[in-house]
Design goal:
The complex is a heterodimer of chains A (322) and B (212). With 322 residues, chain A is α/β, with parallel strands linked by helices. Helices cover 37% and strands 24% of the residues of chain A. Chain A has 2 domains: 2-245, P-loop containing nucleotide triphosphate hydrolases (Rossmann fold), CATH 3.40.50.300; 249-314, CBS domain Like. A 6-stranded mixed sheet of chain A has the order 6-7-8-3-9-10, sandwiched between helices. A 4-stranded antiparallel sheet of chain A has the order 2-1-4-5, with helices on one face. In chain A, a hairpin with a 2-residue loop joins strand 9 (206-211) and strand 10. Chain B has a single domain (2-210), classed as MetI-like (MetI-like fold), CATH 1.10.3720.10. Chain B is built from 9 helices and no strands. The longest helix of chain B has 35 residues, at 12-46. Classes of the chains: A alpha/beta (322), B mainly alpha (212). Chain B: One of its GO terms (biological process) is glycine betaine transport. Chain B: This is ABC transporter permease. Chain B: The chain crosses the membrane at residues 23-47, 54-73, 79-97, 133-158, 178-198.
Chain lengths: 322, 212
């Protein structure tokens, strides 16, 4: 578990990259940190392995503050995957992957076995790729090597800084799938920085949304979609995505007011506008009514018959307001 | 032409001595030049605010005409090989220093960042990442310095340090064109020879993964 406690980062030029941030990255989970560029997400991640140090506040790993830990030692115990060309072009794939084990002075057999194991893990045949150089590999293959290189020293924590952003869409999706599968196998605490919401929703156990050095919301992808904390989070996730991720039954009655009328069509069941369609249906069924009176704070918003609900289901794509 | 070959044969011993002297002067000057410029280049690549002034000073040295520099040094150091060597070293500095600096500062920042993030120390980054990736540049600098030095070493004769310049000078004074040629030709061959050898080394020094 990585805990940030009231962390502020001020750069010498006075800009505040992080403002009083407190957050916990749970153990064995893949947490995605997302936000527009300049929101401080990369700075946040780089603090975990002391590439940046906090101006105020404290960071601890498994309840031990990292302030007193030696930088080099700490970094060797944390995997690090960097955007684009993190591989060393003058070293073979084998030398790249074995870098941290060599820094940790593992013995030769153990290191060699580890390299073979890791390359196989991401589907690169060791006999074919071990002696090749990074530039002889495709972008997707290179980043696969980048990922396993971070695993080489068997760290508990892995930091990934927009690792797939430079790849073409097909390799990117492939690598996202692979990362998910891999994570199920290796169960590491992963901090993954990206600006791509689709990527975040796809791979994350937990998403941390940031803006201007602050955390706007932290929660599971489902929580973000169902209960965006504010307008920024909602617009950052995007309406399309929210709608795509939710079934009709998960949406709320108040989203469909434009479909419903203001005239009561008979005796109606009083229900709050925040009720989901699914709930509304089950309540209708158990109550014996066939009409709904949709209210908000006692004020009537609209009336809906079961026929209106069918209309809403048919027009759900057109209804824009969330 | 026959005259030239006759001269080569009759002055064989003298030419041979001058040739070896010339190699000695060039070689020692470049070796000491490397010993000074390479570490300096590494240091200014790390402390970049000193880079401009340090490179600037060596660039100023470079602009002094070679004959004038030899002239300056004689009153201070007297005549003889040390004087010639010092002048030659001064000329060798700039290409090596500048290329070392450019080579190291040109290494992709994200590569170094990756090394740092994985827990490499500064020395490990220098030795395992920066120097191997800068090596082609450094070798190119050494090559330039060597060819330059072989050429300028002909002027060593004016401070009594010998070398093939002796032969050329003697030929000029006695209006003996064959003798001038007997001195100039080996200088040219020496420069081309050194250049080819260093080119080969430069190629070998280029990290394998970068060759395409």
């Amino acid at each position: 578990m990585i805990r940030f406690e009231r962390v502020t980062k001020r750069f010498p030029d006075g800009t505040e990259a992080l403002k009083d941030v407190s957050v916990v990255f749970p153990t064995h989970k893949l947490t995605v940190v997302i936000g527009p560029s300049g929101c401080g997400k990369t700075t946040l991640m780089r603090m975990v392995n002391k590439l940046e140090t906090p101006t105020e506040g404290d960071i601890s790993i498994d309840e031990e503050s990292i302030t007193g830990l030696e930088e080099v030692k700490l970094r060797r115990s944390i995997g690090y995957v960097i955007q684009r060309i993190g591989l060393f072009p003058h070293m073979t794939i084998e030398d790249n992957v074995s870098l941290v084990p060599r820094l940790l002075e593992w013995d030769k057999e153990k290191t060699a076995a580890r390299v073979e194991e890791l390359l196989k893990l991401v589907g690169l045949e060791p006999e074919v790729y071990k002696k090749r150089y990074p530039l002889e590999l495709s972008g997707g293959q290179q980043q696969r090597v980048g990922v396993v290189r971070a695993l080489a020293g068997d760290p508990n924590i892995i930091l990934m800084d927009e690792p797939f952003s430079a790849l073409d869409p097909i390799s990117r999706e492939q690598l996202q799938d692979d990362l998910r599968t891999l994570q199920q196998e290796i169960q590491k605490t992963i901090v993954f920085v990206t600006h791509d919401m689709d990527e975040a929703l796809k791979i994350a156990d937990m998403v941390v949304v940031m803006r201007d050095g602050k955390i706007e919301q932290a929660g599971s992808p489902q929580e973000l979609i169902n209960e965006p904390a504010n307008d920024f989070v909602r617009s950052f996730i995007g309406l399309d995505r929210i709608n795509r991720q939710r079934t009709f039954g998960e949406r709320k009655l108040e989203e469909f007011l434009s479909v419903f009328g203001m005239e009561p069509a008979g005796e109606a069941l009083r229900i709050s506008g925040g009720t989901t369609i699914d709930e509304a249906f089950s309540k209708l069924e158990s109550s014996g009514y066939s009409n709904l009176e949709i209210v908000d704070d006692g004020r009537v918003l609209a009336y809906a018959s079961d026929r209106d609900l069918v209309k809403a289901a048919l027009r759900k794509e057109e209804v824009e307001k969330v | 032409m026959r005259n030239f070959f006759d001269t080569l044969v009759s002055r064989q011993d003298m030419i041979q001595d001058a040739f070896l002297e010339h190699i000695y002067l060039s070689f020692v000057a470049v070796a000491i030049g490397i010993a000074i410029a390479l570490p300096t280049g590494i240091i200014i690549a790390r402390y970049r605010r000193y880079a401009e002034p340090v490179i600037g000073v060596t660039a100023i040295f470079q602009t002094i005409p070679s004959l004038a520099l030899f002239g300056f040094l004689v009153p201070i150091l007297g005549i003889g090989s040390p004087t010639a060597l010092i002048a030659l070293i001064i000329y060798a500095l700039l290409p090596i220093l500048r290329n070392t600096y450019t080579g190291i500062t040109g290494v992709d920042g994200s590569t170094i960042e990756a090394g740092r993030g994985m827990g490499m120390t500064r020395t490990q980054i220098l030795r395992q990442i920066e120097l191997p990736l800068a090596l082609p540049f450094i070798m190119a600098g050494i090559r330039t310095a060597t060819v330059l030095t072989v050429g300028i070493a002909t002027l060593a004769t004016f401070v009594g340090a010998g070398g093939l310049g002796d032969i050329i000078y003697r030929g000029l004074q006695s209006y003996n064109n064959a003798l001038v040629l007997a001195g100039a030709l080996p200088v040219a061959l020496l420069a081309i020879g050194f250049d080819l050898i260093l080119k080969w080394i430069e190629k070998r020094a280029t990290p394998k993964g970068l060759k395409n």
